[in-house]
Amino acid sequence: MVTYSQSSKLSPNRQAFPIVKKFLDRSELLRVKVHNYNKVTVIDCGVQVQGGWEAGVLFAEVCLGGLARVNLHWSGLNGLRWPTVEVYTDHPVRACLASQYAGWPIQNGKSLAMGSGPGRAIIHKGSVYETSSCYEDYSERAILCLECEGLPSDEVVQHLLKELGCDPKNLYILVAPTASQVGSVQIAARALETGLSKLMELGYDLERVDSGWGTCPLPPVAGNQLSALGRSNDGILYGSTVLYNLRDEDEVLDALVRQIPFCSSKEYGRPFLDIYKDHGNFYDIDPLIFSPAEVWLCNLNSGRSFHAGALRPDLLRDLFDLT
C-alpha cells in the first residue's frame, strides 16, 4: 500500500490548483465569475453566468484532483452519433473515489449541494476512507466543487472553512448547477468513478485496479434541475462505457464483470427520475443502482479481457428528448 510520504506529489489539492488558476486567469474567456467571500475564492461556473464546455472540462479535471484527463469528442453509440465526454487516468482510485466522488452532502439554504473534489481528501469524507487511509491529503490549500443551483451562503462558507481547517485565502470553491453546460460535462465525466463505486460496493479490492478509461454521452442541458438530474444519470446508466486494467485471477474477473453494469439491476429499463422519485433524496437511493452501462475488465496478469452490459441509444433518444 502506498503511504502518504510516498504519494505526497499526488496530492489532489496540489495537482488541481494549476487548473483552478486557469479559472482565475481566464475567467472572461471561460465565461465564469470569480467572487471573494472574505478572502475565500468562490468561482461561479453556471449559477449567474453562462459557463461553457471548456469550463466544464476544467471543472471535471479539478473534481478529479488533477489526476485524470478529460476530453470532449463525437462518438457513435450504436447508431446514435452524439457528443461524448472521455476520462482516463493512471490513478483511478485516488482521482475518482478520493476526490471526484460526491460523498459530501452540504445543506445550502433550502437546497442540498453535492460536495466533491480534492477537499474531500482533506476531511476524509466518503466510504473509500473507511477501508483505506492511503488516499488522505494534508494540503494547506483546499479545493471543493459544489453541484448546486445557488452560490454558497456565508454560513456554508464558514462551515466549510471549519471542516477543512484552512486559512480563508487557501480555500477555493467551484460551483455549477446540474442544469448547466458545466454541470452536464462534469457529471458525464463521472462514469469511470461510477464503475469504481460499484466495485467498492461489491466489496472488490480496489488496490487491484491499475488504470481506467471511461466515456459517457454528454446530456443536453435541461430546462430545470430535476430534469437535468435525470438526464445526467440516464446518460451514465444507459450510455457509458468503462474499462479498467486490473491484476487478478481470470475466474474472479469473469464472475465479477457481470455484476457491474446497470443491466444487472432490477431497476434496469426505468428512467432515473422514476427511481429518484421513489426515494425523494439522492443519498437515499441504493448505491448499487449507480452503474455504468457497459464494462470491460482487462487482466494485466493474463492478457484476457472480460465484457458485460450494453449501450441503449434507443432509450437515450427518449430520455434526452432527441427528435
Keyword list:
alpha+beta, globular, 323 residues, disordered N terminus
Q: Helicity level, as a percent range?
A: 25-40%
The largest pleated sheet is described as:
6 strands, mixed
Anisotropy-based shape: globular
Task: Return residue spans where pLDDT drops below 50 for at least 5 consecutive residues.
Answer: 1-6
- What strand order characterises the main sheet? 1-2-8-7-6-5
Brief rundown of the structure:
The protein has helices at residues 4-7, 12-25, 27-30, 53-63, 92-100, 120-123, 128-131, 154-164, 181-188, 191-201, 225-239, 250-256, 272-279, 313-319, and strands at 33-37, 40-44, 69-77, 80-89, 104-108, 111-116, 142-147, 171-176, 209-217, 241-246, 294-299, 305-309.
Can you put this structure into words, describing what you see?
Helix 4 (53-63) crosses helix 9 and helix 5 (92-100) packs across helix 10 (191-201). The chain has 14 helices and twelve strands. It has 323 residues and is α+β, with helices and mostly antiparallel strands. The strands form two sheets. The protein has a six-stranded mixed β-sheet, sandwiched between helices. It has helices at 4-7, 12-25, 27-30, 53-63, 92-100, 120-123, 128-131, 154-164, 181-188, 191-201, 225-239, 250-256, 272-279, 313-319; strands at residues 33-37, 40-44, 69-77, 80-89, 104-108, 111-116, 142-147, 171-176, 209-217, 241-246, 294-299, 305-309.
